[in-house]
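Example 3.2
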Amino acid sequence: MRVIAGSARSIPLITPKGDKTRPTIDKHKETLFNCLTNSLYDAVFVDLYSGSGAIGIEALSRGAKRAYFVENDKEALGCIRKNLEKTRLSDKATVLACDVRRALSFDIKEKADIIFMDPPFALHAKDEILKLIRERDLLAEDGIVVVECESAEDFSRISENGFEIFKEKDYKSCRHVFLRREEA
């Protein structure tokens, strides 16, 4: 796995050993960032369930001004910190070593332009996390939430959390669902 574009282009990244994390493959990452290009420059980016930090690092490499990395696994946290050092992006990063719920409730104090969440598929935390983002008003007015999920993930109740789907990208094993605040 590597940084695809930007200031840290081609720098290889390390990932936690085993199957605790599910790194987003380069092809999916490239498609994701092609969709985010117009929203990324000078953005505040939040990478929930960060794993190796590859998504947030890609955002910083491509021009985001700040990224929050939220992870509670010690090995993954070590990978994030090493990857930030390798890419020389540590000064634009805040690594939060805690549960996503805690980070959203207490630790992230500025509005995000883009929130990326890739929770473990078995966790089924999407609705709870989206509700918390909305209640805490953590998304900028024109902000985007991107959820990486199983292809069959149900989004039929998304409006109950105050969001609407405006784009989807389907892959063989998963999909990216792009959300924005629901218009009144």
